[in-house]
């Protein structure tokens, strides 16, 4: 196949079409190769860190590099001369435009994951609050592990009281921090910007919460059914009292009939009554 | 009277008594009102004085004892309120232009260019109506959003706090108290300051456009109370919407602007004086109603069709175009202001107070096989709507009879608010339907007993403003609600909404209806895909929309305008066909049981409302039987004292007087010469336009049409006009001021004929003459509105003082 392509190039050379070569300029080819490698690396990274989600922590470097590579391809569009026009030949010369599609895909994924939210402004490394959160998260995980090991022998489902007791502090801290982050995010971001935190943080919190309240069954809200029933039945009872009392005590509104001024002939009246009765 | 005689037949006896009563008015009507006076709380037919084809089946034995105690009363013509009455409180509007000499003079004086300015002014007014209506809608929306947000945050924080520690009954109390106190304020202002602002206002505007003058309905005070009342009742968490009242608000704005002054504020801006007439005002009010609809639903065409359907008697091309202009301006204003408020200016993505969201994804499309399903949903909607109306009917009747004191009304509203909160709380408390918070856009996620990171799905429906709940039901992805939640929600909300409508708060029924319908529609969609086990009809949001349309159609029974409103609110023209089918079915099915909610309330208010046509079986009734007689006539040159006496007579509160030839020779026939209105007479008396004064060469300004307009619309009562004893002997010449060509009908004209003339021309008085042009009787709105097609044929309503 390679030879075939070489032959085609040869033929085109012979036909004297120097401006429209299927062959890329060497610089462009290297740019393209770099982009291909970068995207392969990013894809690998994303795939490997899909579960549990660690996208933003692990892949931001790859993503940044890829952005730069795409940028250098696209930048060539503006200022370079005809011969060095890599952007045109790489990005826009065919229907498929695979480079554009790839880069769009990565951008969209990044946006959807909302990674910008837990990175520093210049995208180098995680922001302080995220670091703090992940610290706490790891701490609570260790706490869980630590306390579970003691009871590893008999894991009956009801026997998590130890975990609940010991890790409650860490968990509450983590939960509060998360809520705090969420609130900050909601205030800072505009309405158009989604109110989500970045996917790593969200997922971490999700896992912990599930462990905490589903697996360990730690968050048992006190259900005070009796007072609620008492209060609600009291309130629901009030309208009945109200309607009954207004029915019994309120004076019924009476209307005074007015005599209409009509023709006073019985003939027409009889006529009507015959017709309708 | 012996008991035996009474036991024969109520209706037979009534008829005898009625005839007695009719022969001489002095005969006391002993038994005529027996059934009515005796029953307390029972639904009894009144004994009207001319009951046609209507037989009442009353339990005899029960009534006899009570009846005997009633018998000695000499004036027993008091009956409990019922739906077969016409109130004397309501009068007609004067749509008919009085073409008297002053009018002709003015028209001659104004040149062609001036008429063109009038035309331009009309457009300016319409633009202002649109802008102001849009701004009022924005104001309501923003205030409601903030206040409701504040309330829900407070309650949510409280619930979150007590979920952990215990003591949720305090949260319940907090929620109920907050609701009740907010609603109390809203109800107090309505009940004590302006009772006409209660309800959605659509029945009132319908009546106004029909030609009935409802006192206070288009005043500035009403607007202020209405706007505040709506905000408070929505924030108070009642099962109400803020869309219906927008129509009323738009109408008030229109009436206010077009008059160029406010009598409430006692300010006259001296502009738009030309429009100070009922005819012109009605046109602008219909534009205002359209602007209101358009701001409420983002449906400008729907608004235009609404006012044409409800109001304008003539399909006037220019008027329609102007109304459309006002509607467009209104929705555009709302859109641009709200988009600036939401921070994305120029986006223009919120055209109405309620936005159904976008229905354009592929899975939202429908196939031809689904159309029978939609029609079935229409049937369900019709039945549920009829049930809603029937329940509301009984409730309203009870309210009119027993809960008529303002304090009781306020207490009732507060109780409803507290119960609404309680029901919501209990439902949320009992629900075990938890959904993950991630990926959902719930405004106030309540965790309660759900696991961390999940929210209670019942709370999205109850713990939210109704508008948001509707949109959630339309657009939340499949699986967001479990069927049990939806079923319970529908049931509870149905009764809450039914109970709420008719309270003394200003609030609309559109959104609650949509919400009920959306809930059962979504339930229907879920069970459908469950039954077919397939994914062909996957998306329940579509069924939620159809259910909402069906429910709304079943309750309000609007047709054309509602279809277009729904279509525009969804922003999807392809849904037009199924929505139309659904609404048609709902209306047909619902009409089989009871009439629409608005018509029902109009009837319960005893408003003399004229429908499009006379009752179908009424051709054998002639004008002679319909008219009121004898008529109080005035002579062309009349003594002032007579005029004053006639006007002061409280027993005959007439508004129009036929003017007959003042012939001293009584043997000769006094033919009809014209018609003069009470308001005109009052202006004449006020300015003392007497023949003698003119003869005395008193320097007197000639009365112009402007003098009549300045007094409009609140003419002073006759008591406030002082006429001295000397002046009583003066004469007054009416020929210049009367309408010289009033509409007349002969005695033999049939009721439908009279009705058509009256309804189409928007008349207020129709004189019945004999073949010598002598006044025989007068047909007014109440004479025509009396006849109605009931369950057992033609019925006649009786007049009553309310």
TrEMBL record, chain A:
Q: Which domain of life is it from?
A: Eukaryota
Could you tell me which InterPro entries the record lists for this protein? Osteopetrosis-assoc_TM_1
Transmembrane stretches, start-end? 226-248
Alphabetized UniProt keyword annotations: Membrane, Transmembrane, Transmembrane helix
Q: Which GO terms describe its cellular component?
A: cytosol
Which is a Pfam family this sequence falls into? OSTMP1
Q: What is this protein called?
A: OSTM1 protein
This chain is encoded by the gene named Ostm1
TrEMBL record, chain B:
Give the record's keywords alphabetically: CBS domain, Chloride, Ion transport, Membrane, Repeat, Transmembrane, Transmembrane helix, Transport
| Residue intervals passing through the bilayer | 123-144, 172-193, 223-241, 284-307, 319-341, 371-395, 484-503, 509-531, 543-567, 573-594
Entry keyword Ion transport: yes
Q: Does the keyword Cell membrane apply?
A: no
Pfam families reported for this sequence: CBS (PF00571), Voltage_CLC (PF00654)
Residue segments, region Disordered? 1-43
**Topologically, how does it sit relative to the membrane?**
Multi-pass membrane protein
SUPFAM superfamilies the UniProt entry points to: CBS-domain pair, Clc chloride channel
Q: One GO term of the cellular component aspect?
A: lysosomal membrane
PANTHER family according to UniProt: CHLORIDE CHANNEL PROTEIN CLC FAMILY MEMBER, H(+)_CL(-) EXCHANGE TRANSPORTER 7
Q: Which family does it belong to?
A: Belongs to the chloride channel (TC 2.A.49) family.
- Name of the protein this chain belongs to: Chloride channel protein
Q: Which organism is it from?
A: Rhipidura dahli
Name of the gene encoding the protein in the UniProt record: Clcn7
């Amino acid at each position: 196949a390679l030879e075939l392509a070489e032959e085609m190039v040869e033929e085109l050379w012979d036909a004297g079409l120097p401006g429209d070569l299927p062959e890329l300029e060497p610089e462009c080819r290297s740019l393209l190769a770099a982009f291909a490698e970068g995207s392969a690396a990013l894809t690998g990274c994303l795939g490997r860190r899909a579960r549990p989600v660690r996208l933003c922590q692990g892949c931001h470097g790859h993503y940044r590099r890829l952005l730069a590579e795409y940028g250098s391809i696209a930048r060539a569009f503006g200022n370079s001369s005809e011969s060095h026009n890599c952007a045109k030949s790489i990005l826009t010369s065919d229907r498929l435009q695979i480079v554009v599609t790839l880069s769009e895909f990565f951008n969209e994924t990044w946006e959807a994951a909302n990674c910008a939210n837990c990175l520093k402004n210049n995208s180098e490394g995680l922001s302080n609050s995220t670091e703090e959160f992940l610290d706490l998260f790891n701490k609570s995980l260790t706490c869980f592990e630590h306390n579970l090991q003691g009871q590893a022998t008999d894991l009956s489902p009801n026997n998590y009281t130890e975990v609940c007791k010991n890790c409650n502090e860490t968990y509450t801290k983590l939960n509060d921090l998360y809520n705090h982050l969420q609130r900050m995010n909601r205030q800072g971001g505009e309405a158009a910007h989604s109110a989500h935190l970045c996917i790593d943080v969200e997922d971490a919190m999700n896992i912990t919460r599930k462990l905490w309240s589903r697996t360990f069954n730690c968050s048992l809200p006190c259900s005070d059914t009796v007072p609620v029933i008492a209060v609600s039945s009291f309130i629901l009872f009030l309208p009945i009292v109200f309607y009954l009392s207004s029915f019994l005590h309120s004076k019924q509104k009476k209307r005074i009939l007015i005599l209409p001024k009509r023709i006073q002939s019985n003939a027409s009246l009889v006529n009507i009554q015959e017709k309708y009765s | 009277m012996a008991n035996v005689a009474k036991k024969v037949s109520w209706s037979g006896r009534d008829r005898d008594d009625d005839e007695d009563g009719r022969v001489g008015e002095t005969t006391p009507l002993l038994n005529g009102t027996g059934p009515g006076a005796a029953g307390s709380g029972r639904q009894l037919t009144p004994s009207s004085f001319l009951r046609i084809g209507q037989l009442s089946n009353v339990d005899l034995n029960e009534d006899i004892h009570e009846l005997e105690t009633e018998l000695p009363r000499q004036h027993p013509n008091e009956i409990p309120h019922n739906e077969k009455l016409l109130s004397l409180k309501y009068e007609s509007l004067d749509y008919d232009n009085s073409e008297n000499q002053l009018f002709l003079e003015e028209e001659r004086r104004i040149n062609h260019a001036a008429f063109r300015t009038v035309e331009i002014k009309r457009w300016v007014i319409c633009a202002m109506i649109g802008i102001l209506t849009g701004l009022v809608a924005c104001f309501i929306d923003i205030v409601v959003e903030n206040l409701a947000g504040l309330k829900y945050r407070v309650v949510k924080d409280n619930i979150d706090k007590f979920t952990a520690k215990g003591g949720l009954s305090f949260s319940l109390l907090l929620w109920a108290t907050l609701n009740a106190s907010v609603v109390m304020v809203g109800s107090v202002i309505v009940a004590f300051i302006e009772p006409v602002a209660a309800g959605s206002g659509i029945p009132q505007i319908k009546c106004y456009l029909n030609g009935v003058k409802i006192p206070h309905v288009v005043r500035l005070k009403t607007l202020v109370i209405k706007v505040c009342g709506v905000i408070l009742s929505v924030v108070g968490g009642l099962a109400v919407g803020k869309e219906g009242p927008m129509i009323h608000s738009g109408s008030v704005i229109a009436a206010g602007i077009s008059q160029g002054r406010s009598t409430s504020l006692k300010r006259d801006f001296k502009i738009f004086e030309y429009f100070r007439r009922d005819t012109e005002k009605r046109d602008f009010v219909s534009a205002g109603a359209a602007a209101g609809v358009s701001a409420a639903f983002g449906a400008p065409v729907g608004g235009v069709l609404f006012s044409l359907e409800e109001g304008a008697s003539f399909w006037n091309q220019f008027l329609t175009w102007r109304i459309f202009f006002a509607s467009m301006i209104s929705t555009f204003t709302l859109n641009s202001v709200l988009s600036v408020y939401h921070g994305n200016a120029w986006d223009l993505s919120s055209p109405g107070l309620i936005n159904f969201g976008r229905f354009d994804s592929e899975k939202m499309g429908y196939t031809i096989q689904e159309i029978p399903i939609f029609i079935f949903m229409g049937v369900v909607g019709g039945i549920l709507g009829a049930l809603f109306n029937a329940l509301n009917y009984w409730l309203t009747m009870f309210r009119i009879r027993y809960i008529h004191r303002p304090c009781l009304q306020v207490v009732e509203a507060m109780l409803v608010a507290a119960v609404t909160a309680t029901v919501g709380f209990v439902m949320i408390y009992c629900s075990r339907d938890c959904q993950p918070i991630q990926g959902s856009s719930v405004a106030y996620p309540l965790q309660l007993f759900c696991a961390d990171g999940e929210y209670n799905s019942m709370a999205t429906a109850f713990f939210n403003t109704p508008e948001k709940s509707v949109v959630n039901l339309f657009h939340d992805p499949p699986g967001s609600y479990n069927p049990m939640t939806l079923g319970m929600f529908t049931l509870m909300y149905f009764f809450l909404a039914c109970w709420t409508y008719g309270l003394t708060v200003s609030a609309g029924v559109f959104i609650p209806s949509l919400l009920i319908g959306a809930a059962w529609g979504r339930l229907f969609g879920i069970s459908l895909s469950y039954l077919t086990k397939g994914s062909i009809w996957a998306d329940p949001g579509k069924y939620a929309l159809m259910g909402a349309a069906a429910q709304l159609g079943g309750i309000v029974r609007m047709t054309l305008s509602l279809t277009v409103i729904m279509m525009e609110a969804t922003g999807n023209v392809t849904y037009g066909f199924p929505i139309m089918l659904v609404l048609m079915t709902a209306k047909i099915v619902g009409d089989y049981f009871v009439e629409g909610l608005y018509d029902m309330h109009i009837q319960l208010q005893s408003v003399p409302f004229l429908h499009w046509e006379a009752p179908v079986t009424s051709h054998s009734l002639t004008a002679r039987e319909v008219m009121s007689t004898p008529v109080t006539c005035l002579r062309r040159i009349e003594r002032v004292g007579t005029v004053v006496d006639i006007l002061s007579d409280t027993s005959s509160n007439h508004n129009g007087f036929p003017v007959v030839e003042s012939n001293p020779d009584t043997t000769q026939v006094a033919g009809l010469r014209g018609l003069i209105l009470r308001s005109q007479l009052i202006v004449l008396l006020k300015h003392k336009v007497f023949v003698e004064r003119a003869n005395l060469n008193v320097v007197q300004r000639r009365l112009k049409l402007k003098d009549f307009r300045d007094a409009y619309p609140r003419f002073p009562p006759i008591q406030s006009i002082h006429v001295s004893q000397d002046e009583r002997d003066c004469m007054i010449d009416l020929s210049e001021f009367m309408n010289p060509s009033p509409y007349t009908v002969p005695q033999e004209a049939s009721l439908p004929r009279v009705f058509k003339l009256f309804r189409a021309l928007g008349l207020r008085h129709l004189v019945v003459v004999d073949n010598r042009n002598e006044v025989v009787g007068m047909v007014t709105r109440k004479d025509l509105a009396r006849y109605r097609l009931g369950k057992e044929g033609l019925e006649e309503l009786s007049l009553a003082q309310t």
